[in-house]
Amino acid sequence: MMVGNPLQHPDLRYVSAFKSADPIVFVRAGGRDYVVVSSMEANRARTEMMGASILTPEELGLRPAQRRRVGWWALGLARKLGLRRVVAPAWFPLGIARLLERGNVSLRVARGGLFPERRRKNAREFAALCRAQRAAVAGMRAVRALLAASRVDEKERLVLDGRLLTAERARAALRKSAAAYDVLFGEPIVACGAPSADPHQVGSGPLRAGESIVVDIFPQEVSSGYWGDLTRTLVKGRPRPEIRRMHAAVTAAQQAALAEVRAGARTDRIHAAARRCLERAGFKNGAANGRPFGFIHGTGHGVGLEIHEPPSLGTQRDRLMEGDVITVEPGLYYPDVGGVRVEDTVQVTAGGWRLLARCPNWFVVP
Amino acid sequence: MMVGNPLQHPDLRYVSAFKSADPIVFVRAGGRDYVVVSSMEANRARTEMMGASILTPEELGLRPAQRRRVGWWALGLARKLGLRRVVAPAWFPLGIARLLERGNVSLRVARGGLFPERRRKNAREFAALCRAQRAAVAGMRAVRALLAASRVDEKERLVLDGRLLTAERARAALRKSAAAYDVLFGEPIVACGAPSADPHQVGSGPLRAGESIVVDIFPQEVSSGYWGDLTRTLVKGRPRPEIRRMHAAVTAAQQAALAEVRAGARTDRIHAAARRCLERAGFKNGAANGRPFGFIHGTGHGVGLEIHEPPSLGTQRDRLMEGDVITVEPGLYYPDVGGVRVEDTVQVTAGGWRLLARCPNWFVVP
C-alpha cells in the first residue's frame, strides 16, 4: 500500500502513469492494482491507468467528513478488500499509518524499498534517461558558449554584452536552453572559485577567469519523471596550475572508475579505484576546522525516477547489476582553491557500460 | 522532529532556508533548532542556516554503517538531546518512526499540521507569492499572444508559422516565458474542447477555434519555493454560445465568491455563494455514467509553499484568517462541451482581499 502524490513519490510514479498533484491511495493485492482518487479525478484516472481498478471515496462507503481525508480512503479500501495486514514503503506517512492501525490494519515496512526492480532500467526507461541527459548536454553547451563569448575585464571578471557574466545569468541561459526540451532544470550548479569547494553550493555572483567553474546540470523529464545528471568543470582563459592538475587527476580517476564498471562489480571497489587514483596523484583527504577536504563524496549514485537512488558507489559494499543507471563523478575540493568534478551517467551492461549521452570533457574555454 | 528533503517537504522549507536534495533531520527543542546533515553539507548548512546548531553523523557518535542511514541520524540526535518523546508531522516517514520507536523514542503526530501559522503569509512571503503570480501572468500573456498570432484553417484548427498550434507548443512557449523569471512552470494545463471538462487534464494536440481553451498556470519560485496559481479560459474566434454563457456565469460566480472573502468569513459560505450563482444561471450539477458534471470542485484552496494547502474553500466548514493566500476559481464542466474556469489568487485582509497580480479576464481572442 502506498499513499501520496504520484508526482512526489517515485514508487507511485513507477507503478502508475497517473500524474496528480493531490494524493492517491494505491494497493496491489492478489495481482491486481486498486487506486482511490477523488471523484473529480476518476475519469482521468480511468483513462491514464488502464488495468487498475479506480475507486472514489464515495464508492468506499465513507461518510462525507471521511471522504475529505486520504487516510480514510486508505482504510476504506483496506476494508473493502478485506486486508488486515499491508506492506508499506519506508516513506509511508506516519499519520496515515496510525489511522490504519486504529482501524486494525497493521503495516510492515518493506526493507530495501518496495520495488528493488526499479534499479534495472528497461529500454523505455533508458530512452527517457537519455532524453533527459541530452537536455543536460544542451545546457552544458549553452553555458560553455556563454563563457566563450565573454571577455575578461581588468579584475579578471567575465563580461558579456557589456554586463558582468554571473552564475545567475548562466542559470537563466540554462533554463532558456531547456525550453526546447520537455525537462525542468531545477537549480543547476554554476559555482566559481572557492565556493565551488562545497559540492552542492549552487553558486552566485560574477564568474572569474582562471578559476574553476563547476557546472552540474540535473534535468528531470516532465512527461516521464526520469532524470539526467552531468557535470563539467570549465575554466575561462588560463587555469590556475593547481586547477589544471586537479582536473587531470579527476579525469583519470573517472576513467579508472569507469574501467571497473560492469554487471557484478563491487561498488566499494569502484570507489576505491577512483580514490586510489587521486591519492597516487598526490591529492590528500582530510579535514580542517571540521570541514572535510579532498575527495569528500562517493564516486556515484543511481539515477532514475530519483536523482539520487540506489546503488551508491561509496564505501558501502554492494554490487552493480545489469540495467543499473549510475553516475561516475569523482571530484576534488580544497577550500582555498575550489572544486573540480567531472560526471557522466552510464547504464551498466554485462561487460561494461554505455553512456546516456555523449558530452566532450570540456575544460579550458578560450 | 522532521526528517526529509527540504526541497520536497514544505514544513522543512518553512523553518529552514537550507536547500538540499538529500534528507536532513530537524529538531526544535527548548527553543533551539538542531539540524543533522552529511559532513559534506555541513559547511554550506552552517552558512545557510544561521542560528541553528548543525551536527554531522560523525558528531553523533554513530557507527560507520549507521552514519549512512538518516533514521540513525534522527535517533542519534534524539539521544544526544535526551529526547524520549517527539512531535512529528503526519507526513513523517513510517520507516524512521519505527526505528525511533525501537530506540525507545515515542512519536506523537501533530494534528492540523506542525505549523498552522503557515497560513498567515507575512510581507516577505507575500512578495514571493506575488513574484510567482507575476510569472503566471507573463505566461498567460504569452499563450494569448500565440492565439492572437494564429490563423484558423478549414478544419477550425489553429495554425501558426505554417504549423498546427498545439497544446504542447503552447506549453513550450510558457516554459520559454519563464526563462526571464526565477520560476518552474511544471506542466501547465492547456486543454482545449471536450478534454477540458476534466479539470486536471493537461491537454494535448491541436487547439481549435470556437472551443474553450483552459489555461491553468502554477509556477513555483525556485529560490523561495512559493507558488502562484492563475487560470483563464480563452477562445480563439467566435465562442460556441454555451461556452459564452458558461464564461459569463463563472465570471459572475468568481465575483460573488470574492465579495464574501474577508478575515473571519466562513469558507463553506464562500463556496455556497459561488455555487448558488452558477445554479441560478441555470447550470446543473450531477453525474452521468459515474462521471460528475457541473461545478465539480471546490471554490478555492490555500497557496503557499504548497500549491494546494489549507484552507480549503469547499463544503467543509472553516474560517478565513488575515494573511491567508487563497485561490478563487469556480468552474463549469460538461463532458460534451468542455470546461470553463477563471482563477485568481488573493491575500485575505481584515476587510476583504488584495490580488497577488493583476491579469485581465481574457476570454475571446480575435
Summarize the SSE layout with pairings.
The structure is a homodimer of 366-residue chains.
Chain A: E1 2-4, H1 10-15, E2 24-29, E3 32-36, H2 42-48, E4 53-55, H3 64-67, H4 70-80, E5 85-88, H5 94-102, E6 106-109, H6 123-149, E7 151-152, E8 158-160, E9 163-164, H7 167-178, E10 183-184, E11 189-192, E12 213-217, E13 220-221, E14 230-236, H8 241-258, H9 267-280, E15 286-288, E16 291-293, E17 300-302, E18 309-313, E19 325-328, E20 331-334, E21 338-341, E22 344-348, E23 353-355, E24 364-365
Parallel strand pairs in A: 3-4, 5-6, 14-24
Antiparallel strand pairs in A: 1-2, 2-3, 7-8, 8-9, 10-13, 11-12, 12-14, 15-16, 17-18, 19-22, 20-21, 22-23
Helix pairs in contact in A: 4-5, 6-7, 8-9
Summary of the model, kept short:
The structure is a homodimer of 366-residue chains. Chain A has 366 residues and is an alpha+beta fold. Chain A is 30% helix and 24% strand.
Describe what you observe in this structure.
The first copy, chain A, is α+β, with helices and mostly antiparallel strands and 366 residues long. Chain A folds into two domains: 2-114, Creatinase/prolidase N-terminal domain (Creatine Amidinohydrolase, Chain A, domain 1); 120-365, Creatine Amidinohydrolase, CATH 3.90.230. The first copy, chain A, has helices at residues 10-15, 42-48, 64-67, 70-80, 94-102, 123-149, 167-178, 241-258, 267-280, and strands at 2-4, 24-29, 32-36, 53-55, 85-88, 106-109, 151-152, 158-160, 163-164, 183-184, 189-192, 213-217, 220-221, 230-236, 286-288, 291-293, 300-302, 309-313, 325-328, 331-334, 338-341, 344-348, 353-355, 364-365. In chain A, the strands form nine sheets. Chain A has a four-stranded mixed sheet, sandwiched between helices. Chain A has a four-stranded mixed sheet with strand order 11-12-14-24, with helices on one face. The longest helix of chain A is centred in the middle third of the chain and has 27 residues, at 123-149. In chain A, 53% of the residues are buried. The mean pLDDT of chain A is 95. At the A-B interface, helix 2, helix 5 and helix 7 of A face helix 2, helix 5 and helix 7 of B.
